[in-house]
Amino acid sequence: MWAAVRGEPADRLPFATYNCHGFSWGGHAACPEYAPILEAIRRTGAGMLCKLRARRAGGMPAPQVARAVEGDQELTTETLATPGGTLRRVFRNRRGQPARCVEHYLKTDADVESFLSLRPEPVRWEIDELLAMVGEIGRAGVAYLDYRDPFGSVAGLFDQEDFLIRIHTDPAPVMALIERAFRTTRDELHALLEVLSGPRPNVLFYTCGPEWATPPLMRPELFARVVTPYQSPLVAMIHEHGFPVSLHCHGRVRLALPEILKCRFDVLEPIEPPSQGDIDLGELRAAVGDQMALMGYVQDQDFFTATPQRMRDHVARIVAAIGRGAAARRYIATPTCTPFAFPPPPQYVANYVAFLEAAAELGA
Questions:
Q1: How far apart are CA 273 and CA 278, in angstroms?
Q2: Packing angle between helix 308-322 and helix 346-362, nearest 10 degrees?
Q3: Dihedrals φ, ψ of 309, to 5°?
Q4: What end-to-end distance do the CA atoms of the chain give, in Å?
Q5: What is the mean pLDDT of residues 32-55?
Q6: What interhelical angle do 171-196 and 160-169 show, nearest 10?
Q7: What are phi and psi of 311, to 5 degrees?
Q8: CATH of region 2-60+120-362
Q9: How far is residue 333's CA from residue 315's CA, in Å, rounded to a whole number?
Q10: What percent of the chain lies above the pLDDT cut of 70?
Q11: Which of 121, 181, 197, 296 has its CA 20 to 30 A from that of 60?
Q12: b/e map 92-118, b = 16+ CB within 10 Å
């Protein structure tokens, strides 16, 4: 996996799970239904992409959090006090499943002004836990360390429909939020990089907000306005400290690709196959050349609906596009997202195991 990230020759087609692992901080080892996948990881020698976060103190004021139960639903309400007024955000989820935001912090122009009235404190990073997790991963996978995207952190404050209307019809307040988010992110990231410069853990940084700026949600020229000017200096800062950087960007990347390349990311993932994506692996590989590594192209939803033979056929198409053995440069075969079902259906497990076995066999 690291050879692919760095553009070095690999001895086989690299393949990995996407944030599915048996390490102590993960949830999959505690779910018996995931045992066949974890066993297949060991049996096939698959890598593991492991998402991590560093513990932080300071920054933006923390909200007050209240939780309630309504039948099989959990309700989490966050209340954020600002000099300009109180803001509220609400999440709803079935117990044990991912949450969905049903009420966002920013709903009116007055809410925007209230949020801008906040003054973040300097961030202090605690990395002992992060270093322990990186040590536990060792050579079995890649530690995937996130940092905030200024645009994405602002987009997530609004209901998505409201945000898209605002960015197209009244962009000035949104741009003010992005500018402030960039300054905050830059300072926080610099502080984290300084702390990491001593122990120098083997981590791959990533950010995920720019996927909100791709078609059909936003025109490609807007990506150049709300992402590139802010990600370019952040990526450069990470590179200056000797770490590689990945962009997590679901959906359609074809028209945004020129701007993504300008940011000088080292990796692009999860490169969804058409029809959720809009460019196939061979064409994308030709378009980026050796400028960045590609990771993904195994659609997570297929594990729910396909058959083991279809998964094997898909891996065969990947090998035909990328090559096998030492020819498989700058690509890692992974699913497109973390397995979120607890427990997973038997069909999901069987197809996931089939993917790992086919990648081990066909990519050798």
A1: 7
A2: 30
A3: -65, -40
A4: 14
A5: 97
A6: 110
A7: -65, -40
A8: 3.20.20.210
A9: 8
A10: 100
A11: 197
A12: ebeeeeeeebeebbbbeeebbbbbeeb
